[in-house]
Amino acid sequence: MGLFCCGKDTTALATTTTTTTSNKLRVFRHEELETATAGFSPSTLLGRGSHGSVFLASLDGGRLLAAVKVPSDDDYSTFDTEITLLSSLPRSPLLVNLLGATPAGGPTPRIAVVDLMPLGSLHDLLHHPLRPRPPWPRRLRLALHAAASLAALHALQPPVAHRDVKPSNLLLDANGRARLADFSLAVRLPPPQALPPAGTIGYIDPSYLRPTDLSTATDVYSFGVVLLEILTGRRAIDVEYSPPSLEDWAAPLVGAGRFPELWDPRGRPAEGREEEAARDVAVLATRCLAPVAEERPSMAEVAELLREAEWRVRSPPPPAWRRLARWVVGRARNGKVSDVAAT
C-alpha cells in the first residue's frame, strides 16, 4: 500500500484532457491530524499495508474529508522520497493528489494528506466477491481513465515512470473514475541514481532486468497486463489456473483469434460494437506486452486508441437507411454491381 490507498474527488474528470493546476501544498500540524482522525483511532482506519496505515480525516470542521498516511517504522526514507516527488507534480484530476504533509525534520515521522477515494480500487471492482462485476462499457471507460493518467505522467518534462501499475493502484473517486495512485516506486527519467528493478510480480516488465532498462515502456507493459485483467476478470497471477500467468494464458488466445474465450462471463461484451471494441482492446493489450520495449506503443497512443474504442461503444448505431447505403456502396466497391442493381 502506498500513499494513495484512498481518496475523494470533487473535481469532474474529462478523459479527453490532462488539464492540471499548480500544486499549492498545505502544511499540517501533527496535532491537527491527530484530532482529525480521533487519535488515529481504529474506527477511522481505512487500510494497512507494508508502507504504513491510512486513516480517514475530517478537517476544517468537517468541510474537508481526506486520507492521511502514517508510515511504518522502517519506511521513513521511502515515504519522504514519495512526498518529494508528489509535491513536484501539478494537481490533476487524473491522479490521487497530495494535499499536504506535516513538516520535514520534525520530532515525529511525516504524515501525508491525500485525496480521499471513497469507492475503493479497480482491483476491488474486478475481484471482490461481494461487489457486482462492471459491464464491458464501464470497464472500457475505466481503462481509458487509467491510460490517460499514465499518459499524463509520461508527458511531463522530465517524464515520470510509475513502476507499479496494477489495479490496486488505480483508485475510484466519488464519480467512479479511476485515478493513478501510490508513487512509492515512481521516479523521474532518467533517475538520478541507479535504482534496482522494482514492481509487482505478474505486472513487472520481464525485460526490466537492470537499472538502465527502465523507461516509460516499463509502465506500458504493466498496463497491458491491466488491460487483460479488465477483459478477462482473471488476476495477473492465479495458481488455480494453468498456466497461472494471465499473459501466458491470454496472449496465445489473442494470437489465434479465440476472443470469446477471453471474456469475463460476468462482464462479457455484447455482440456487435461492444465485442468489436473488446477485440481491439485485446490486440492492443498484446502490443503493450511486446517483448522488445521499443515495439510497444506509447501511453499517449494507447489512450487515443481506447478513446476511439470507447466512443464507438457509446455512439448510437446509424439509422437503417445509412446502414443500407453502406452495404450498397460496399457491394459496388467489391464489383458486385449487378447484385446491387438487382437489389
TrEMBL record:
<protein>
    <submittedName>
        <fullName>Serine/threonine-protein kinase-like protein At1g28390</fullName>
    </submittedName>
</protein>
<keyword id="KW-0418">Kinase</keyword>
<keyword id="KW-0808">Transferase</keyword>
<comment type="similarity">
    <text>Belongs to the protein kinase superfamily.</text>
</comment>
<dbReference type="Pfam" id="PF00069">
    <property type="entry name" value="Pkinase"/>
</dbReference>
<dbReference type="InterPro" id="IPR008271">
    <property type="entry name" value="Ser/Thr_kinase_AS"/>
</dbReference>
<feature type="binding site">
    <location>
        <position position="69"/>
    </location>
    <ligand>
        <name>ATP</name>
    </ligand>
</feature>
<dbReference type="InterPro" id="IPR011009">
    <property type="entry name" value="Kinase-like_dom_sf"/>
</dbReference>
<keyword id="KW-0723">Serine/threonine-protein kinase</keyword>
<dbReference type="InterPro" id="IPR017441">
    <property type="entry name" value="Protein_kinase_ATP_BS"/>
</dbReference>
<keyword id="KW-0067">ATP-binding</keyword>
<dbReference type="GO" id="GO:0005886">
    <property type="term" value="C:plasma membrane"/>
</dbReference>
<dbReference type="GO" id="GO:0004674">
    <property type="term" value="F:protein serine/threonine kinase activity"/>
</dbReference>
<dbReference type="GO" id="GO:0005524">
    <property type="term" value="F:ATP binding"/>
</dbReference>
<feature type="domain" description="Protein kinase">
    <location>
        <begin position="40"/>
        <end position="312"/>
    </location>
</feature>
<keyword id="KW-0547">Nucleotide-binding</keyword>
<dbReference type="InterPro" id="IPR000719">
    <property type="entry name" value="Prot_kinase_dom"/>
</dbReference>
